[in-house]
Amino acid sequence: MNSDFKAGIKLQNPREAQKREELLYKIISQKDSTLEQQINEALKHTTRLLGLEVGIISKINGSAYTVEYCYTQDQSLSPGQQFTLGETYCDITLRQYEPLAISHMADSEWNMHPCYDVFELESYIGTKVYLNGELFGTLNFSSSEPKEGGFIPEDKNLIKLLAEWLGGVLKRKQIEAELQESKKLYELVAKNSADLICLHEPDGTYKFVSPSVTRILGYTPEELIGTYPYALFHPEDRKLVEEQSHKPAIKEGKQTGSLHYRIRKKNGNYIWFDTSTEVITNDAGEVIHLQTVSRNITDRKRVEMLFSQAQEMANVGGWEYEIESERLLWTDEVYHIHEVPVGTELCVEDGLSFFPGEARKILENNIERVIKTGDSYDLELPFVTNKGNRRWIRAIGQAEFIDGKAYRLRGTFQDITLQKNYELNIKEQNEKLRKLTDNRDKLYSIIAHDLKGSFYGINGLLQLINKEVGEITDDEDILKKLTLAESSSRGTYELLENLLNWIRIQKDDIDPEFSLFNLANEIQKTLQLSTVSIQKKELKIDSDLPEKCMIRADQNMIATVLRNLLSNAIKFSEAGETIHVSLQEKSDIVKISIKDNGIGMSEKVKEKLFDPTDRPKRSGTSNEKGTGLGMLLIADMLKAHNGEIEVCSEEGKGSEFIVYLPKND
């Protein structure tokens, strides 16, 4: 099944979705029936699957609603019946973006609609149908009874995909009608033109050739008489002619007709022949001659191939240009895109004139390149139609060669104006986003300058008050509250600093400033700054640090990494536990380990530890608040140093964070 159809079946109800998927497959797999039969079968089976009474494909023109196809259990409707659009539920459907489904009209907001009074339909589901990008009508199903159990999402998906399939079927039906009209025209031309009539020996040798051969193939009759025709047939078609025409005529005396094959003209180009063969026998029934009547169907074949291409690609036209004769051939869709009456004779200069200025130069240069090199081109260019409408088109072209020389160009032509408009809308949205980003950055700047400065002042003031009050009172309650206030203020300040640092990293607004410093001293400094938090939980620190360990890195960033790792170890340790801190040098890298015996982490928490979209936010053992932002900051800062972090943790047994940094000394 087409992947787009399968993608449309959302597995909200797998069993029901499978039923609808099987129905879609059954509908689009109809190969041995006409398009009319395919449409009617689709209506019938969908109506039954939905448990409704009526299925309709309508055509809407202004306020007129015409039944194009229908299926009813009681045959109360027939194609061609017309209604006023405003008296049908499809009037509501046309105002909806998605398919409309009403399970019980009496209980719905549309129970006063004229259709309910006139037809008394209690349930309805419908959607719009488009043909060539324009509204054709609707696909809808209804019943006089409420929908038992209501419609499910898969029902909407089903009719939405059916409407897309139906648009394609209607497009093919339209193309077939145009092709049939084209065939009738070619038959009329053939009847009034001189066909090529030849008489052959039983082995195929030309015995007589009509004068029309000069006009059709470029040879004189005398040049062909006595020669073997197989030498003129396209190598890929010789076996076809032998198996389906020559052998049946000789061995079975069977007349054959309408065999299509390619034959080479005197100038080396191939054209398509439609040839019928009649057997001439003597009195003994022996084949003595073969008479053939051939006509040039090259134009018809080209049109058929171009229509076939157009059938596969909606809203895409085909074109062809013969370099020697300078003949330009367009399909109807190309005429429509140019807003030129179908059938108007145009030359290459006319075609190029629709491209303004630089666009024309680009196209001309690419055509010349294709003719010289054999490469293809695929361009998106501005374009002005015959009526002055500005559009964007996608032009694809390639050359066909004989003996290394290009003799024909062919390709496709597609209107991509809608796509380009979407791109313009995206650019406008990006500009709006840029302005929002600028405003956000201004807000961050205010936070970084004013709010951060205020917290810094509060921290200093609390430290001073704590010191002075401690000198004049022994009241433990007051001292405890002051210590708590100072700790909370310091934690909030650190959170704010982490947030601002992380934002700057996301904006690529911060680059590491490398300098040579003693990492062991930096770790000691971090431990000293955390003394209050460590003492508050009565924790022990077991450190294994060398006196000196020199690295070249951004000292402030590394300090932030250390502070956050130690803060986490303190936060998730129980009172009285021990935190182990170690530093080791290994040739060109250093290894920092901060290990606790705290509450640890589950595998699920570990997996999301560095996920910015779903970071874990856990409280500490003393109910310390956590945002998960610190781990993101650590990951980004280590990445800026080409460093790595390893996490070893087991729930209930503690965690170890190991940092690897290049020494860069």
TrEMBL record:
Keywords associated with the record: Coiled coil, Kinase, Phosphoprotein, Transferase
Stretches assigned to coiled coil: 419-446
Enzyme Commission (EC) number: 2.7.13.3
GO molecular-function term, one example from the UniProt record: phosphorelay sensor kinase activity
Residue ranges of every copy of the PAS domain listed in the record: 182-253
Pfam family, one: PAS_3
PANTHER family in UniProt: PAC DOMAIN-CONTAINING PROTEIN (PTHR43304:SF1), PHYTOCHROME-LIKE PROTEIN CPH1 (PTHR43304)
Protein name (record): histidine kinase
